[in-house]
Amino acid sequence: MDVDFYQCSEINSLKKYLLKKAKKLLFPFYIYFGFYLIFSTILHKYYGFSFGKNFNLFNWIVSPWTDIQPTGFCMPSWFVITIFIIQIMHACVQKTIVFIDNKERDIITAIAYILIGAFVFHNRSEVYIGLIVNICKALMGLFFYEMGFLYGRYFERYELKIANSVYFIFILLLRCIVDCFYGWGSIAWYELGDINEPYFIMIISALLGILFWLRIARIISNGLSRNSLMIYLGKHTYSVMLNHLFVGFIFQTILGILHIRYKLFNNFDLNLYKTNVYYVFDNRTASTLMFTMSIILTILGVEKIKDTIKGKIRRTIRVKKLLSREYNMEER
Q1: CA-to-CA distance for 322 and 62, rounded, in angstroms?
Q2: Tens of pLDDT along 209-248?
Q3: Is the dihedral of CA 134, 140, 143, 144 positive or negative?
């Protein structure tokens, strides 16, 4: 999503950092968000759909900051505002305590983030008021963001030395111990308050899951790290995450048109199609997998077209500047 997601250890200018993150996260987010609100408004007014919000300035500009999570096609963007707040908060903290040595600063920051997260966790039932909800989600996420830095600086070199078999046995054993005493721990970032286990169990559950998938990703990457499609997917993950519901809806709409006009797909449920943005005509495993792959490939195809157009525009501008420079030199 963000190629320099964990490259802000040295922040010379908070203003430049803020503008950089706003450009990478908020600018494309608001474009997509506004488009989906306008599209939802058209669906509501002319075609009888009921999911999502109508477009107005409040819903477009303010509601992403005040809602627990967006609705309709905008739902996949629930994480954008939270991540933006986390990164800005972390940058402010690092700038404030820059006079402390790196190692001590990392330890102090991690402990402070755990304590802040614990406080928010235990008082979460009283914070469902507008912007405070997203700030509290960000405060709970600060520790996990910091863990990315700690992992890269202090733990990764040791983790790489552990054999896969030992690694997975250890993680699964800890997971079983947690489950035996506390049940299946989870983090409900969408709802914030829908968390039943103690705070430290939430932390352990999250870290175990992160470590598990880190090793899985490392194993897979050995075979796919040079695959051009996977590299391109990694570059455009943000776009895939924001747009997959809308592209899926387009596919469902095609099936709905075929159902209405040609009486195909008799099990197609028009009522669910119009009321549930998650509706999938055929939810069997194989069909869902093909549906998901089609969505991803479609989004990547659109991104490829966009990248090609941007590249041609940049080359044209570069050539014009070069010709202008040569013309000025000749004039002299």
Answers
A1: 43
A2: 889 988 988 888 777 767 788 888 888 999 999 999 999 9
A3: negative
**Structure token pair of residue 145:** 């963001």
Instruction: Tell me how far apart the alpha carbons of residues 194 and 200 are, in angstroms, rounded to a whole number.
Output: 16
Amino acid at 311: G
Query: Is-contact 182 70, C-beta < 8 A?
Result: no
Short-list 241, 244, 256, 258, CA closest to 288: 244
DSSP 75-137: GGGHHHHHHHHHHHHHHHHHHHTTTS-HHHHHHHHHHHHHHHHHHHHHTGGG--STHHHHHHH
DSSP string computed for 193-228: S---S-HHHHHHHHHHHHHHHHHHHHHHHHHHTT-H
Q: How far is CA 85 from CA 27, 65, 76, in A?
A: 15, 10, 17
Tokens of 121: 């966790």
Which tens digits make up the pLDDT trace of 5-33? 445 444 567 888 899 999 999 999 999 99
Of 154, 152, 29, 34, the C-alpha closest to 85 is: 29
- Cα–Cα distances (Å) from 48 to 43, 45, 262, 270, in that order, read 6, 7, 21, 11
